[in-house]
């Protein structure tokens, strides 16, 4: 979508979207209104069972979709747990709940089970909401809706401003939400995050319907709601930033030992692993293979501020890796279950590389025609898998079956199958 198209779409949405806050209407394009206060003020934080029971009753009696958001303390605490949950529903107002004081919100989740939940970037919040008993059966993701509708900027602030004409203050998005008590400006920010979420949902629904994409969105939302919890990542230490520098298996073992030691300490202290030891320090120690604490202390990642006891525990990890027999050293790469990296295709299978190039070009052109990102039209991994092992006999039915087997939704199968058949057939000729 071009800038002119986005402006026109935003203007149309401001005209046709949901009801604005009670304190005034949205302004003309180019003059957004700052949204400074929740319409009923900042609600008290619910931190006891009696208050939670009142919220459950109020939201069960409310009407229409419920806006849901969660704040985490990424970069400060271990894991991705929720430290504040915000909700808003017609007839119930806004609620702010402390999930540390009220760790079981399953009663609230059950009360809202048959209600459509409105979230922004749902896949980010659903894992931490699931941990406290809140699991939607129906949802509307305003970020994903914005992508499907062709908006190039789909952050919540950009969407609220472009679609509804209001400016949200976003200065507290990266604060330490485990802080107690939470400062009033942070609570105001948190309440405003759900203030217009249902209004945004209504406006985007109308825009998707206008573009003929609403059913596509419904299929995407249903897939997110039905997705099982993610499996724990295998060998998470391999995601250490800077791993591309580590070439030898003994060095990989040092990364693994330091990463696992750091993770145990971070979990015990409930702090972000990066606050215990940086990724850069782990990689530096792996490359240097220090012989003793003195050599370790000389590395910039460990520095003069680290105490002798800390240095000794990190050196012990290095020593364990250095003492491992060859058979116990990690392999250079993880076992690959799918196609190899595309950069290797030209050498391994030139015909597959040609298929992938043609398919990527065709999918890119279709995505541009539909004004949406390629990855939302069809995942790059799905395209790679179909191109690496195309069905025997390239037909519409066989390609469609392959797409379904890789998790493509019906709308994606319908749109992508013809262009993949053409691309794959051209290379087979």
Give an overview in words.
This protein has 429 residues and is an alpha/beta fold. It folds into three domains: 3-226, Ribonuclease H-like superfamily/Ribonuclease H (Nucleotidyltransferase, domain 5, 2-Layer Sandwich), CATH 3.30.420.10; 236-328, DNA polymerase, domain 1, CATH 1.10.150.80; 342-428, DNA polymerase, domain 1 (Orthogonal Bundle). The protein has helices at residues 3-16, 49-61, 106-111, 122-131, 142-149, 156-164, 184-195, 197-211, 214-226, 249-269, 273-276, 279-288, 293-297, 308-323, 345-348, 350-370, 374-377, 380-388, 396-405, 410-428, and strands at 33-35, 45-46, 63-72, 82-90, 93-97, 116-119, 138-141, 166-168. The strands form two sheets. A six-stranded mixed β-sheet has the order 2-5-4-3-6-7, sandwiched between helices. Strands 1-8 form a two-stranded parallel ribbon. This is Ribonuclease D. It holds the Pfam family HRDC.
Secondary structure layout plus pairing:
Layout: H1 3-16, E1 33-35, E2 45-46, H2 49-61, E3 63-72, E4 82-90, E5 93-97, H3 106-111, E6 116-119, H4 122-131, E7 138-141, H5 142-149, H6 156-164, E8 166-168, H7 184-195, H8 197-211, H9 214-226, H10 249-269, H11 273-276, H12 279-288, H13 293-297, H14 308-323, H15 345-348, H16 350-370, H17 374-377, H18 380-388, H19 396-405, H20 410-428
Parallel strand pairs: 1-8, 2-5, 3-6, 6-7
Antiparallel strand pairs: 3-4, 4-5
Helix pairs in contact: 1-8, 5-8, 6-8, 10-12, 10-14, 16-18, 16-20, 19-20
């Amino acid at each position: 979508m071009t800038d002119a198209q986005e402006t026109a779409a935003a203007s149309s949405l401001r005209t046709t979207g949901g009801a604005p806050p009670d304190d005034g209407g949205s302004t003309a394009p180019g003059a957004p209104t700052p949204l400074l206060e929740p319409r009923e003020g900042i609600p008290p934080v619910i931190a006891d069972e009696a208050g939670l029971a009142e919220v459950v009753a109020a939201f069960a009696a409310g009407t229409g979709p419920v806006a849901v958001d969660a704040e985490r303390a990424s970069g400060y605490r271990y894991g991705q747990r929720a430290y504040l949950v915000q909700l808003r529903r017609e007839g119930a107002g806004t609620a702010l709940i402390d999930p540390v004081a009220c760790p079981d919100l399953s009663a609230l989740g059950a009360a809202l089970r048959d209600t459509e939940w409105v979230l922004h970037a749902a896949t980010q919040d659903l894992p931490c909401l699931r941990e406290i008993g809140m699991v939607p059966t129906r949802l509307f993701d305003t970020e994903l809706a914005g992508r499907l509708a062709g908006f190039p900027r789909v952050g919540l602030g950009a969407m609220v401003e472009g679609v509804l004409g209001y400016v949200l203050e976003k200065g507290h998005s990266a604060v330490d939400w485990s802080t107690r008590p939470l400062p009033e400006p942070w609570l105001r920010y948190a309440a405003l995050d759900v203030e217009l979420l249902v209004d945004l949902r209504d406006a985007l629904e109308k825009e998707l319907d206008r573009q003929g994409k609403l059913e596509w969105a419904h299929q995407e939302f249903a897939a997110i709601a039905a997705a099982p919890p993610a499996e724990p990542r295998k060998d998470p230490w391999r995601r250490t930033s800077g791993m591309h520098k580590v070439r030898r298996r003994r060095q990989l073992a040092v990364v693994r030992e330091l990463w696992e030691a750091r993770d145990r300490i971070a979990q015990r202290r409930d702090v972000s692993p990066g606050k215990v030891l940086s990724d850069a320090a782990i990689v530096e120690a792996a490359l240097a293979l220090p012989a003793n604490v003195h050599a370790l202390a000389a590395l910039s990642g460990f520095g003069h501020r680290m105490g002798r006891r800390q240095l000794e525990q990190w050196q012990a990890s290095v020593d364990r890796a250095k003492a491992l027999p060859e058979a116990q050293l990690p392999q250079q790469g993880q076992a690959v279950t799918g196609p190899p990296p595309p950069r290797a295709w030209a050498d391994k299978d030139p015909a597959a590389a040609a298929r992938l190039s043609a398919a990527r070009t065709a999918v890119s052109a279709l995505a541009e025609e539909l004004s949406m990102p390629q990855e939302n039209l069809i995942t790059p991994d799905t395209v790679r898998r179909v191109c690496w092992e195309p069905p025997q006999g390239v037909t519409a039915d066989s390609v469609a079956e392959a797409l379904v087997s890789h998790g493509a939704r019906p709308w994606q199968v319908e749109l992508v199958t013809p262009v993949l058949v053409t691309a794959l057939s051209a290379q087979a000729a």
